[in-house]
Input
Amino acid sequence: MTVCLFLSVICGVKTDVLPVKASQTSITKAFRSRFPKIKLDLTVELSKYWDSRIDRAYQISDGQDDGVDVAVLQSLQDFHRWKAEGRLLPYRVASWNDIYPEFIDRDGTYTGLYICEFFVLPLLLSPTPIPS
Output
């Protein structure tokens, strides 16, 4: 008996920052060497396009399919809504309890992958007022 599985992963990134093709190729190659019987479709595109594509796939399939198995997007707002609509399955990684609780969903339906902050350190700036 041959088992053939398919995993569809989308990754929303700012494509001018990440060397997309190189990353996509190395991730796909590593995945295939570890899981040779699973076909991986890894697609990289801006998050602002993916969330609407996922919603559209769900809509045209009458709620049967989101068109993707794993979504890595740049922000979390879509995941809150998708959870409320019952569209996410819970999954907790082995290190779940090591992640700060502010960055996880208590039910395990999503988690922040990378946390980025932006702030201004007024002490490092000249004494001129900060523009508002």
User: Anything to note?
Assistant: The chain has one domain: 5-124. The longest strand covers residues 5-12. DSSP finds three helices and three strands in the chain. The first helix runs from residue 20 to 34.
